[in-house]
């Protein structure tokens, strides 16, 4: 006898075995997928946006405090963000396998995914904290000016303290999202942003009786907030009413073997996201070589790109869950439909979001700084966002659909080609050989995103036509 879920969702009936492998999709199936996509994506998007809104608040407050301090903070974030996003990729298997278990209505297996992932999460967090702590040598060997290398290295140490917390929060959020319960993560993120706004301003400017720390104040705020978020969401998972249904408190024994499937999915996703973020970090370091104005302008433009990308990431995460649930039911046509709806919807939404930035680049730039030179450079790249937003969002939706369908290394190879072998060389050549400056970096990003979005869509077309193998249990 199958237990009903305790999360307010109805169990989905198994597909008709006699159904055609290539059915025509009636309108009600499309409407259902769109409805479920946005219902799940909205709170996930708010939670993802919250992560970047904190960075945007940092950028606005520090940018208006001092342009040089903003450059230090932007460079410090490059290795931290690269490692954090790599860690998030390594934990992607938690969301995917939880959604597969939900599709099978195997609630104990869903809880086991979280229990086995937690020790692994802490292990990754400790390792990445150490690497971020040592970031100053990276700034030195990549040719950053001495002033930037010294100040950014100190900020990276402060940011590294929040690394384990960021990953603990991610594991808990992924588990809840895989169960289609994204609201707790969203609520925690909203609370964190309210605290961040007050504490950030206080520590940067020395308001409310707090010490004036400049960019260091923003870095300390980020670490404190990340630990607050992690502890709140961890407490929620441990104390939620349905913890018995999922076996949340059964302990962590056998976690390494039990996390094998999630880790193997995560290895590919982590390598993929690590390569992508490392490539973007390389572009930040290219901008640093151009000087303080270029580094500040690149950071502002990337903050806007990253902020809007969080909308795409929310839609992509919802796409992955929808595809994963259909995969868990072994419903291939529904899996394909979920993936394509997620891909096309994400690209359309991202294009719409790019229009105000394209029309009012000067106004957007003034939100972050009053430095005339920084504003002029920033405006020259914000007009490229109608090209970059849809393709960057589309590639993320496509790769999320592939992960939900259990595809591991092919998406990673496509990311390797797009971001390591296309974006970095193109960005370098356009920036330094053709002397295009910061706009050259963003033309490289646009080219790589187009290659990735196209290649990953073709790959999903192939994968979604294959029969789904029978479930054989943990390996």
Automatic annotation (TrEMBL):
GO terms for cellular component: plasma membrane. Residues 1-25 are annotated as: Disordered. CDD domains: MATE_NorM_like. Residues 1-11 have a biased composition (Low complexity). One of its GO terms (biological process) is monoatomic ion transport. The chain crosses the membrane at residues 37-57, 77-97, 117-135, 155-176, 183-204, 224-240, 292-316, 337-360, 372-391, 412-434, 440-462. Residues 12-24 have a biased composition (Pro residues). Pfam families: MatE. GO terms for molecular function: antiporter activity; xenobiotic transmembrane transporter activity. Keywords: Antiport, Cell membrane, Ion transport, Membrane, Transmembrane, Transmembrane helix, Transport. It is a multi-pass membrane protein. NCBIfam families: matE (TIGR00797). This is Multidrug-efflux transporter.
């Amino acid at each position: 006898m199958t237990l009903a879920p305790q999360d307010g969702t109805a169990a989905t009936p198994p597909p008709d075995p006699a159904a055609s492998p290539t059915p025509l999709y009636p309108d009600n199936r499309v409407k259902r997928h769109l409805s479920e996509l946005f219902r799940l994506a909205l709170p996930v998007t708010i939670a993802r946006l919250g992560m970047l809104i904190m960075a945007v608040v940092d950028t606005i407050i520090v940018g208006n405090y001092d342009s040089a301090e903003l450059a230090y903070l932007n460079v410090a974030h490059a290795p931290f963000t690269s490692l954090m996003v790599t860690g998030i990729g390594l934990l992607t298997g938690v969301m995917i396998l939880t959604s597969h278990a939900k599709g099978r209505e195997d609630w104990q297996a869903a809880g086991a995914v979280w229990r086995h992932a937690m020790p692994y999460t802490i292990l990754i967090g400790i390792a990445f904290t150490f690497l971020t702590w040592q970031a100053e040598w990276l700034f030195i060997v990549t040719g950053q000016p001495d002033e930037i290398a010294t100040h950014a290295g100190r900020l990276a140490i402060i940011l590294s303290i929040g690394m384990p917390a960021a990953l603990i929060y991610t594991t808990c959020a992924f588990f809840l999202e895989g169960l289609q319960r994204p609201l707790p993560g969203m609520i925690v993120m909203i609370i964190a942003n309210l605290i961040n706004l007050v504490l950030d301003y206080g520590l940067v400017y020395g308001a409310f009786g707090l010490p004036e720390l400049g960019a260091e104040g923003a870095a300390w705020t980020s670490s404190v907030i990340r630990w607050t978020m992690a502890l709140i969401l961890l407490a929620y998972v441990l104390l939620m009413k349905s913890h018995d249904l999922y076996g949340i408190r059964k302990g962590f024994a056998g976690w390494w073997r039990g996390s094998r499937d999630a880790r193997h999915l995560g290895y590919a996703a982590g390598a993929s996201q690590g390569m992508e973020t490392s490539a973007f970090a390389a572009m930040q370091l290219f901008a640093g070589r151009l000087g303080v104005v270029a580094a500040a302008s690149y950071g502002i433009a990337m903050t806007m790109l990253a902020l809007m990308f969080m909308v795409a990431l929310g839609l992509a995460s919802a796409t992955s869950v929808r595809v994963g649930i259909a995969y868990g039911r072994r419903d291939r046509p529904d899996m394909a439909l979920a993936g394509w709806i997620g891909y096309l919807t994400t690209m359309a939404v991202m294009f719409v979001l790019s229009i105000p930035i394209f029309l009012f680049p000067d106004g957007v730039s003034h939100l972050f700084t009053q430095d005339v030179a920084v504003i002029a450079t920033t405006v020259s790249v914000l007009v490229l966002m109608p090209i970059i937003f849809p393709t960057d969002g589309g590639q993320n939706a496509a790769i999320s659909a592939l992960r939900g369908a259990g595809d591991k290394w092919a998406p990673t190879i496509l990311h390797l080609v797009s971001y390591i072998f296309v974006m970095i060389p193109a960005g370098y050549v356009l920036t330094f050989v053709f002397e295009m400056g910061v706009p050259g970096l963003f033309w490289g990003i646009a080219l790589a995103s187009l290659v990735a979005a196209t290649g990953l869509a073709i790959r999903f077309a192939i994968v979604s036509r294959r029969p789904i193998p029978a479930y054989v249990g943990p390996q």
